[in-house]
Task: structure prediction
Amino acid sequence: MMPIPGTLVTMVMGRSRGDLAMLRMSVGTGALDSAQEYALDTGSLTEIPFKMGKGGCNGLRAYHISFRDFVHQRADAMLTSFAEWETSGSPNGVMEMLLGDKSADIHYEHDTKGILIPGDDGRIYCSNGQILDRDLAVKSTIQGQRLIPAFGGMLMLGLAPDGAMTVFSSATTRPLTKIGIFPGFPKMDAYGNVPDNDRLSAWNTNRFQLDKQVMFDAVAGRLMLIPMTLDRIVRSTINVKQLLDDSGVDYLVPASAPGVLASRGKPYLYHAKALSKTPATFALEAGPEGMKVASDGSLTWTPAKDAAGKYQVVMSITAGGETCLQSFEVFVAP
Result:
């Protein structure tokens, strides 16, 4: 029996957090039957009541409110950022729900940007080549690339119309190196058009969209792809530093991913690293009270005993006259 009455449509969780899930539930299966999101405590299988802040309606109801809406949803590692769009209407809609300590804010743009993937750096990566901030403002655009963020927020994979894969720096949007062709990618015709493919279409009615065929763990140096034929898994080991050295370009790339969980009254430690041709130095640009970062990248912080919720952290990394930022969130359980 479902802990929340109705028909389960989708369920989304963050890969680094097991206590929370977002459920899309409908009161029935009629085209116009009402549907909305619910937060579920996976331990007790009970609903978590969320207080709506900016942009919300009743409960966690937002914009795509009918069973007939073919809705797609993605989350970041900690399920603090939850993105949604639908491929059964025009425009698709661009929605982000920011989940705090039992509160939620919703941002929405009546637009189409394709697949929306919240990165671990607090930004949303789109299959139209745009990168959005938490207010859905466009921060940068890489023309002709479907963007998929790597775990940890330091790199992203760009997929060109011909299936060519390029690794980009998330911090600078600079192309770093090419890593081949996506297996089984449809070939363009003489006019530069890609044959019809449901997972490449803005009107995709397949829940297994292109971004679900890619797992890019840049810190561990692993890339896993499911070809367009969906018949196998292609696993590759990627030495990111070697690829950067072989590319012949200057580079500065964050090379470590922080832990995303902290405990009240206990030290939280993170040693940031970077890939660069000259030694890098680190500094704290923004963070909670009491957090410190040494020039070698050593971050220390002890959350207060009444701390709870998510805390935004921004570190600057400088090497060879170039500076980039590493942004992430640390979650302190209440």
Q: What stands out?
A: The mean pLDDT is 84. The longest strand covers residues 309-319.
